[in-house]
Amino acid sequence: MAAPMSNVEEIRSRVILGKFGVKNVHTTDFPGNYPGFDDTWDMKRFQKNFRVDVVHLDENSMEFDMVGIDAAIANAFRRILLAEVPTMAIEKVFIYNNTSIVQDEVLAHRLGLIPIKADPRLFEFKNTGEESAEEEASEIDTIQLQLKIKCSRNPRASKDSSDPRELYLNHMVYSKDIEWVPIGNQADVFADSCIRPVHDDILIAQLRPGQELDIIMHCVKGLGKDHAKFSPVATASYRLLPEITLLETVEGEKAERLKRCFSRGVIDLEDAHGKKVAKVVNSRLDTCSREVLRHSDLKNCVTLGRVRDHFIFTVESTGILPPDVLVTEAIKVLMAKCQSFLSEMNSVNME
């Protein structure tokens, strides 16, 4: 049965949250689906409706709105951020001496997951056909790091002390102990940006007197789809913009209960002729818990929805690159994919 024309716009543009389910979750605005609606894709209309609004940006995280696109494009953008923006990470670990209690394999795995502050755009992908010998590292595709540390007793420690921090020297091995060893002309090229771990306080191992580590590491350029250590983001997610509509005036004690049903800052109470009246202030802050639908006297006072083409993106960088740079690089990857697809289509048509 065809939907009434009065509900078509809601079906096309809103996801409705009900007590026991979610409605209008599928995209329906394709050509010919609804009489009287021209849903053919148009470049001018897309350019008019599409926009990106940056809401928050700092050194490690970014929140922005992407409006006027389909969920498939938003999800492709998210997946590219997770798995297809390249970074530099430790790939080869040459252990010359490890007398700690940490096994070589576990130690190598821990080292590989340490994010390295190095711009991957300045390096090339390493040729997979090459042998993994240490001497074949090149300045254009490899970063060499060294971890050389030995634990010893502190001669100045008190005889009555039992604190390892006072008794021993270098007993805690942190990422700050990893040193960059330039290859070729890297010292000149990266003179202004010293290559190092993103965080200095990542614990690698614990040592006791006489135990030591002597390790050489090679960082190469890679993608998150090959290994999670290459992923440039800690999180990359999106959600639809919540939309809360009050269907009637809610006053007094009901208004106070309505306010408590939503996240802080969503509903506010204002005075109207001596009564407290509920008002939607910022639906963006809502977590869509649907708590209000549990109250029999409130559930018919409000409609909970989400705007279908308004995506709120949250990107948290691991620190290798700023989040705004990651977003820019993800857009470039998506554009390259589109160009590759068009080239394949053209080659098929020519044949």
H and E string: HEEHEEHEHEEEHEEEHEEEEHEEEH
Cα-to-Cα separation, first versus last residue: 45 Å
Radius of gyration: 28 Å
Q: How many β-strand runs?
A: 18
Q: Which structural class best describes the helix and strand composition?
A: alpha+beta
Strand content: 25-35%
Number of helices: 8
Choose one word for the global shape.
Answer: flat
> Unreliable segments (pLDDT under 50, ≥5 consecutive)?
none
Q: Share of helix among residues?
A: 10-25%
Mean pLDDT: 90
Helices and strands in order:
Layout: H1 5-13, E1 14-17, E2 22-23, H2 43-49, E3 51-57, E4 61-67, H3 71-83, E5 87-98, H4 104-112, E6 116-117, E7 143-150, E8 152-153, H5 164-167, E9 168-169, E10 172-174, E11 179-181, H6 186-189, E12 196-197, E13 203-206, E14 212-222, E15 233-246, H7 252-260, E16 267-272, E17 275-280, E18 302-317, H8 323-350
Antiparallel strand pairs: 1-2, 1-18, 3-4, 4-18, 5-14, 6-12, 7-11, 7-14, 8-9, 10-13, 15-18, 16-17
Helix pairs in contact: 3-8
Organism: Characodon lateralis
Family: Belongs to the archaeal Rpo3/eukaryotic RPB3 RNA polymerase subunit family.
Protein name: DNA-directed RNA polymerases I and III subunit RPAC1
Structure report:
- The protein is an alpha+beta fold.
- 24% of the residues lie in helices and 32% in strands.
- The strands form 6 sheets. Strands 1, 2, 3, 4, 15 and 18 form a 6-stranded antiparallel beta sheet that branches.
- Strand 1 (14-17) and strand 2 form a beta hairpin.
- Helix 3 packs across helix 8 (323-350).
- The relative contact order is 0.18.
